[in-house]
Write a structure and sequence with these properties.
Blueprint: H1 10-31, H2 50-63, H3 66-77, H4 81-107, H5 113-125, H6 135-164, H7 166-196, H8 198-211, H9 223-232, H10 238-253, H11 257-261, H12 265-271
Helix pairs in contact: 1-4, 1-7, 2-4, 3-4, 4-7, 6-7, 6-8, 6-10, 7-8
The structure holds fe (ii) ion (2 copies).
C-alpha cells in the first residue's frame, strides 16, 4: 500500500493526463456556454418564492470560496500535470457558476447590489481549509462533492420547472451539466488510483465516505439555517446522500460495502481497536 502523501508514479501521472486531454477536448467542443448570451435574462420571475432565492444564495456563496479551493488544492498536485491542469480548467468553469447565480439574484431583484457586496465580504471573512491531508483523499472528496452538487442543482431545477423561471432554469441546467462532467472526470481519476493501489485507495475512500460534509456551508454565518432550508425543500438530506450519492459512487467504482467497512491494519493501529 503506497503512502498517500507521496507523488504518483509516472504511469499514473500519464494516465491522468490522457484523461484530462479527453475531458478538455470534449468540454471545448460540447460544453462551453456564455453567461451573456445563453441565458434568457429577460425571463426572470420576480414573483418566485423567496425561499428559492435563499437557496440560490447559499449555492452562490459555496461557489464563491473558489480562491480557497484552488489555492489549497493546487499545491497538492503541482507535479501531476493532468490533475493540475484540470484544476485550472475546473476553476474557470466553477467561476462561471457563482457569477451566473449572482447575476440571477440581481436581475430577478431578489437581492440588491449592496446585499451582494455584503455577501461577498461576509464569505471572504472565513477561510475554507482542506478537509483531508493528501491529494488522493481530496480527489475522492471532490468526486463525492461534485455528484452531490450536481444533485443539488438538478433537484432545485425540478422544483422550479421550466415555467417557474426560464432564466434560473437555464442557469441551473448549464451548471448541472458542468457539475456532472466534473464528477465524471474525478471519478475516473479515483478509478485509476484503485487500479494502481486498491488497498491504499480504499483506505482513503473509507475515510472520506464516512465523514463527508458539503464544503463551506458551515463557514456561512447562518450555515445551519441554510442547511435546514435545503433540507426542507428536499433538495438534499441524508437519505438523498445515501441513495443518490453514496450508493451510485460505490457501484460506479466497483467497490463493495464490505470493502468499505473493513479496516486496514494501518487504520486499526491508529484507532487502536479490533475491526
Ligand atoms: Fe460549481
Ligand atoms: Fe463542480
Amino acid at each position: 500500500m503506497a503512502d498517500p502523501t507521496q507523488p504518483d508514479s509516472p504511469a499514473v501521472v500519464a494516465k491522468i493526463y490522457r484523461l484530462y486531454r479527453d475531458y478538455f477536448d470534449r468540454a471545448e467542443k460540447k460544453r462551453r456556454w456564455s453567461l451573456q448570451y445563453d441565458i434568457p435574462w429577460d425571463q426572470c420571475n420576480r414573483a418566485l418564492d423567496p425561499a428559492i432565492a435563499d437557496v440560490v444564495q447559499t449555492f452562490c456563496s459555496v461557489e464563491m470560496y473558489l480562491p480557497d479551493y484552488l489555492s489549497k488544492l493546487l499545491p497538492q498536485v503541482r507535479g501531476n500535470r493532468g490533475r493540475a491542469w484540470m484544476l485550472a480548467n475546473w476553476g474557470y468553469e466553477e467561476s462561471k457558476h457563482s457569477m451566473a447565480l449572482g447575476d440571477w439574484l440581481l436581475r430577478s431583484d431578489m437581492r440588491s447590489e449592496e446585499q451582494m457586496a455584503d455577501l461577498e465580504t461576509q464569505v471572504f471573512q472565513q477561510e475554507w481549509d482542506l478537509p483531508y491531508d493528501n491529494a488522493k483523499a481530496m480527489v475522492i472528496y471532490t468526486t463525492v462533492q461534485e455528484l452531490a452538487t450536481w444533485l443539488h442543482y438538478y433537484n432545485l431545477r425540478q422544483i422550479i420547472g421550466e415555467r417557474g423561471d426560464p432564466a434560473l432554469c437555464k442557469v441551473l441546467s448549464l451548471i448541472a451539466i458542468d457539475e456532472r462532467a466534473h464528477y465524471d472526470f474525478f471519478r475516473k481519476v479515483v478509478q485509476i488510483y484503485l487500479e494502481d493501489d486498491r488497498p491504499g485507495t480504499l483506505e482513503q475512500l473509507r475515510r472520506v465516505l464516512n465523514t463527508f460534509a458539503m464544503p463551506a456551508v458551515h463557514l456561512l454565518v447562518d450555515g445551519r439555517q441554510r442547511t435546514e432550508a435545503v433540507k426542507s425543500l428536499r433538495i438534499f438530506d441524508y437519505d438523498i446522500f445515501y441513495y443518490k450519492v453514496f450508493e451510485p459512487i460505490t457501484v460506479a467504482l466497483g467497490v463493495t460495502k464490505s470493502e468499505l467497512r473493513r479496516r486496514s491494519a494501518r487504520e486499526i493501529m491508529v484507532v487502536g481497536s479490533s475491526p
